[in-house]
């Protein structure tokens, strides 16, 4: 019997977000829009140790509102670890005793990587809407270059869910030699029209907020550091609009079943209906959504939300490469695709499209539709289920002759 | 062969919205909240002729944003007829050669029946949020009294979809002797938690709009008459918030399949992506939603939206009467229930709950899950399919011995 606990002590599990500058000087990034851009600072964290042969690195692509802080604690006083901590660590699904795990904040984000809330070196003011238009391809180009700077020729795997899964797919097609395996969770080759519709309403909530000021709201918007060491986006800006966008998006991340199970029609304040129109949080589900909205605006930047949801809308692997099959014909990696039976934002039918095209393109492909009540959020929650797949898949990949 | 067209000439199909005052003086309405309220003006229209024995009347309960103008034209210059015109008229599903069809705007509405935008006789100003809290039961109490004022002892049928279907169910339970048949389309005994969640976000969009001013925005909000003779709610008020609420709600009325079929990822302005964040309507689905939002604010009042969505949230037939079976044990009517296979706001499972409880309560019950790509909106669109059911069901009801 071991005396260590399953949850390592925080003091032994401390991580720091680091930063690297890319695309500086003449080496600007050529964006999909045709525009050049640089420099780009990339915020990143690593967990575990890179092997001497530099062949055990796994890159995590985070989803829409994620960040580089995927695991561990920034400080012994932190109440919560990184966002995928249950999956990343010694003996976990992504075992840091075996693998060197990297996570970096995306281009256009607001947690350390250059984005619209960053200072434009040319003006000394935040970019705001002068930040260039970005695509999922641009997000991937930045992280691909970052991996080259780390002197890692080939990643063992790139892993991501939702917008992270889109990055995985794009990366496998755009830089095929840079990974041995691609793990795409709860994602798709394009966002559905319904998904675009929800994004459109979220963006409208932000742009219609009078405090949006066409994206130049940063004058009262100083970045500080929050409790967990992440950048805090607090004062000023379209807070109502951003909270509203988050409330709406949050509904799409849950399944009807999980909302029904967790909240149903239960009341927040008592067991009596108030018959009061001004009570905005009468039902528990309302209170929960308002809480999600309020929390979100502390950590996220409204302009980043606009840019990154638009990048999701634009993502369309089939359109870009002629067809999905033609896209995947460029890939070299083996693929693990998962979907979740209650995910209605990225339904299983969209993963099945991926699998069909991968098979047509003769790619080594494993697909599982996993069962979970948690809807789209399942890939963040059902970590044990995921670990059961990832552990043998990664081990198998590692043992395969290159 | 007939020389008349299927669409009768507008000049022969003119209707007028009339108004009746109820609950005046001492005869105030006792609301479910315990408060008394009056007077209530009810805006209504009728189509067809009441039979001498007054036994051929069918009452239409409209949905959330509907009104009394269900059929015909207000003026020969109107471009569009009433909202259910395809179902109501000579030879149609609700055949005005046989039936006397009545439709009335609901309590709390904004198309002629007393609601928050009406003048409070005590203050001479619009009620705003001083309008009393109302329930689906209160909506039904008003229309039930209105039918008594018309000296109709028993309606042949009460018909409605969505919030209209909730009124049908409540009416059948609350005033069982007042109808021979209840037709409940795309509805449920309660709104799902997910439905409450969407309503909560829509209400928040309105209340967070700085022009909401706690409901007292009417100072620049003069009612006029729009092109089709309906009341126009134009200037002032939380227009951004109300449009946003409508855009969101509209997504829930469509099926994923219908959005995909109608819009997919097609672009609005050209066949080239603009790579421009400030283009808010790049995809056709975005343009469509923005258009829906803009149109809606011309005809609807934001306070009415708050009151009526809250009434939907509160509706819970099982909670009110102990159980659904106990609720329906009070009913006398025969029931026709329909759901639509692509309706995810009021899914078929919720109609099946109704049917199970109706059967347990020994009610004469017909249920059909209809196929349609149009999601929740199907009951408004798939009129021929509905007519095929309604024509024999109503005829059968009429021929049954009372």
Annotation keywords:
homodimer, about 400 residues, alpha/beta, Rossmann fold, Rna Polymerase Sigma Factor, Chain: A, eight-stranded mixed β-sheet, 12 helices, 16 strands, about 15% strand, globular
The geometry of chain A reads as: globular
What is the ordering of alpha helices and beta strands of chain A?
EEEEEEEEEEHEHEHEEHHHHHHEHEHH
CATH-defined architecture of the largest domain in chain A: 3-Layer(aba) Sandwich
Largest sheet features of chain A: 8 strands, mixed
Poorly predicted segments of chain A: 1-6
Structural domain tally of chain A: 2
* Cα-atom radius of gyration of chain A: 21 Å
Helix content of chain A: 25-40%
CATH class of the largest domain in chain A: Alpha Beta
SS elements, strand count of chain A: 16
Strand order of the largest sheet of chain A: 1-4-8-5-11-12-15-16
**How much strand of chain A?**
15-25%
- Our count of helices of chain A gives 12
- The quaternary state of the protein chains shown equals homodimer
The greatest inter-chain interface is formed by: A-B, 57 and 57 residues
Query: What's the overall average pLDDT of chain A, rounded?
Result: 94
